[in-house]
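# step 3/5: fold
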Amino acid sequence: MPAEAESGEPGTPEMPSTPGTPGDGSSDSGAGRSAGQNADQGAGQGADKGAGQDAGRSSRRPPQVTRDTARPEGGGRAAPGAAPAPARQWPLLAVLGATGLGLLIVAFDAFRVGTILIGLAVIGGAVLRWALPDVGMLAVRSRFTDMFTYGGLGAAIVLLALMAQPHAWLKLPFLDDVLHFTVQ
């Protein structure tokens, strides 16, 4: 049995221990496996393995069942494990709290201010993702992808809130031309 399967670490393929089960190479029928899989299995037997192959692995095929997935970069806890759950996820709760406050302001009929606050909360999420090594559940993908997505969405929300009619706080002349061209 390979050393990886004995370690019991998550994500390592576990080899079946009973003889004759599919996938362990002792079954004569090979039912359920394609010809390419049988050829891959037989190619490494009795032949020298290349320098680039791991000597402990019996197959190059991925496991049939995925046990777990890797956490995104920065996806660890933002506070020690002994801290209560809300304290461990404070970056996400800060972004959600500011977004909720923005929605509450929108509900009280201050659309532009509330929407700008929502956009700034999402931009704040991008800043937290950039500045902190561990941000808990605020980390979704890689650091660059999260920063680009949060920053882009936040900037778009803020710009749209500033350009909302009537009485836009930010006026872009070419947008008036585009609007008049489409209405005519």
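# step 4/5: annotate
Helices lie at 3-7, 35-43, 85-88, 90-107, 111-131, 143-163, 173-183.
# step 5/5: archive (pending)
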